[in-house]
Design goal:
By secondary structure, the protein is mainly beta. 5% of the residues lie in helices and 37% in strands. It has one helix and ten strands, in the order βββαβββββββ. A seven-stranded mixed β-sheet has the order 6-7-8-9-4-3-10. The protein has a three-stranded antiparallel β-sheet with strand order 1-2-5, with no helix packed on it.
């Protein structure tokens, strides 16, 4: 049986449903993620054919690099997705899920871009650049 999770943006104009297993949450500390989120990006990942999107007309896509685009609600500004151009998957922000407690932490990537005013002390593995099975624009 497929794991089904739901979520959406702050104003409710964008809703999504994921079907199937979700990757562990990866925490990205690169400068792009820091600037867009205010600190770091925490997201799981799902195959594109396992993501159902309602309110897609309210999602604005920003090409943050030649590698990927970032999707956010054009009404409330909630960051929702990170989509690599050449992969059939979406990274989905952990905080956008209705039940984020169903997600599991994995590891930290791009830690060399971490803002120096905080420490990563949760005991999860840390990678200065890309992590295992995760390639980013900074990699």
């Amino acid at each position: 049986m497929d794991q089904i999770e739901t979520g959406g943006c702050l104003c409710g104009k964008v809703r999504f449903t994921t079907r199937g297993p979700l990757r562990e949450v990866v925490f990205c500390h690169c400068s792009q993620c820091r600037r867009q989120t205010g600190l770091y990006f925490a997201a799981t990942s799902v195959a594109a054919d396992r993501l159902d999107l309602e309110g897609a007309e309210h999602v604005t896509w920003f090409a943050s690099s030649t590698f990927a685009s970032r999707g956010f609600c054009r009404t409330c500004g909630s960051l929702l997705f990170w989509k690599p151009n050449d992969e059939p998957r979406y990274a989905v922000l952990a905080g956008a899920f209705d039940r984020p407690e169903s997600l599991h932490p994995g590891y930290h990537i791009c830690t060399e871009g971490r803002a120096e005013f905080y420490r990563i002390s949760d005991g999860l593995p840390q990678y200065p650049g890309d992590g295992p099975d995760v390639v980013t624009a900074s990699g």
